[in-house]
Amino acid sequence: MRSIRVFLLVALLSTITLVNFLAALHGYRESMAAAQQLLDRQLAATAALLEKLPLQQVQSELPADGEVALQLWGEDGQSLLKSANTPGRPMVPLEGGYRETNFGNYRWRVYTHFSPESGRWIQVAERADLRFQLAERVVLESILPTLLALPLAALLIWLVIGRGLSSLRELANALREKRAEDLEPLQVSEPPQELQPVIRSTNALLERLGASFERERRFSADAAHELRTPISAIQVHLHNLERELQDAGLADRSGSLGKLRLSVTRMVDLVEQMLTLFRTNPEHYPARLEPLDLQQLAREVIAERYELFSARQQSISLQGTAVGIRGDVFALTVMIGNLLSNAGKYTPERGEILVTTALSDSRGYIQVEDSGPGIPAQERSKIFERFYRVGGDCHASQAEGSGLGLSIVAHIARLHRAEIQLSDSRFDTGLCVRILFPASSGTVLPGEEHA
Amino acid sequence: MLLNTVIIILREVLEAALLISILLAMSRRLRVDPRWLPLSLLLGGAVAVLVGTQMRGISELLDGVGQEVFDAFLQLAIYVLLLCVAVLMIRSYYSQNTVPGGIAAAMGAAVTLAVIREGSEIYLFLSAFSADPDLRPGVLSGAFIGAGIGFSIGALFYYFLLALPRRTTLAVACVLMTLVAAGMCIQAAQLLIQADWLPAQSSLWDTGNWLPEGSVSGQLLYALVGYEASPSPVEVGVYFSAALLMVALLFWARYRAEAGGRKGERDRAASTP
Amino acid sequence: MLERTACRRLVLLWMLAASVKAVAADRPIVELEIRNHLFHPAEILMPAHTKVKLIVYNRDPTPEEFESYELNREKVIMGGQRAIIFIGPLAPGEYPFFGEFNPNTAQGKIIVK
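^ Those are the sequences you sent over. The predicted structure of the assembly is below.
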């Protein structure tokens, strides 16, 4: 069924039409038969009147008006009286009863009656077409309301079905407006019996889903938190070990110690990222949205991390205008930091990174472009999944990362109801990530046109 | 005037409406784009009016039997198109994924021809009365009632077909199309007898007292299975050979399609190591 | 496509048969007129078990449909035109016919003796 409403309307209307019209047709037939009987009786009454008429035995002709005809015949077949519109012979053979015949360009219904007292045959006739038209006009009057009521019935059915389906529509709207992370139970006011099982099962499903989300989040957050202490201990012991080895005059010939230090640093990073990911989760993070300048923020974050880029001889530049949005300073700092470190990681030495803040259709955005290898279009949707890394573990850039950076970016973007767009960067290769904030929050700050 | 208007309009509308509902239901089931319907209704309607205005010339062709021969050929063409539609339906049912491109065209062509045939008669009838103000209310109400009953039966029939279990729809549609197609042939035969192209014979039986052709149920059966109260041997022969030819072709198409399907499976099985 | 050629062949056969027959047999001709939505004459006599060529002249300006359920015949006759309808062979009896566009007045019957 493409639409329940259309189906119900067509099916109901067809049924009503069929039943009503067949009934009307039946009524028409019966009424027409009754009307014909009535007219026949009138014809007989006219004949009875003529029977009583005193009449001399002279043949005479009456002027005719064209709608009625009459003939009187003697017992011996001699014409006594006739209207001018009848032929010289009897209209129909002289037998009692009703018959139809043609003469004078019309079809007539003739009543023939023999009067025994006067010994005369009386024939009275009416034009069949006029009789029929008269009867039909009367009968049609009674049928017309049935026909005219049909459009009204269609309108009423349409409205009634709409009313009947309104709770279904309400449910559909409630489902449509639900945000992806909103696992609150559905609210439908006074759901009808038929919808209650649907709402109950949906809400039970949402509840189970919410519980399992919560468990998962808690587990990773707890795990990260629990890992912090032993990792700090490892860091301390590693430091001590280095010192002791130095003091003993033993060189780190295989470089194992250096590698161990790098691994531990990476582990610290990862744990911190996991905690950030948990903290910036839109359902937990107590965002404090305040007006801020996106470009100013970007400038600060770039300045903070400038050394990282210069160490790899990468050129980083900031373009565009000052963009005022409402946002959470801490969260946005984390987000821009993650975007920049991602870009830095995947861009080769002496590569280029370009940060732009501007307005697009009155929506503020920040965009980070790099000259790294880029991401094939078909993989772009997956990069926001946690621990997903393009190309798996054997990543072409050999860069180290947790695979959590972009998940955090996605969290923070959702916190601000911002949209993430991925495209190719303006360099020969590379990725362009654009965070597009909602329209109401983006304005160019006055007097701060960027030079 | 109302009653005979109802009968005339109902007869024409019902034939087209039943054909359309069968084809439309199958088109839904086979996921064929139903755009052929409005196109063929428009085209058929336009040509019907054209044929209606040219009826004078058409009837004078072929020694005064042009009208019968023209209508008979329309009916036979619809029969052939229904054959094609049914064969294509079976083929697409068994090949599962591919819907033959010609099926929408064949359905559209069949409906176009049916609308031309029925529409031209409706046009002639209504145009004969447009001038007479005395009869107009009766004729208009009759046309409304006739069209209402015809389209309602068509719509309910359509939903009935869609409500059938998926597996039986094809079988039911094939049976219905065979009956409708054979009905087309019996009408064509009758027209050709009237034109003296086929021999006239006395009728084999007469069920007119039991179920008059002019009644609503008689009209319904006439439209659906080509009901004829007093058929002659030629008409009965034509009816059953048309039905048999169609049934044979359908079974042949099914056999081919199943064999093709098995062969395809074997090929696939052979090609995978 | 097989069935289409078969149809065409059948039709050719019919055409041949029809032309042969037309030459071979001279059928009795009966004429009928439609005037003012009436049949003139309203009753026609016909021989039994004989095929008859019925010629109907429509003298009205409006079209009329000659229709008879008993004879299995229906044919639209345009205003001012004539139509040829082959009838029979029929068993003795009465076969009513009517004008479907004006069934209240256009009525008649064929009496086969």
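The helical segments of chain C are 2-24. Chain C is about 20% helix and 45% strand.

Shout if you want it in another format.
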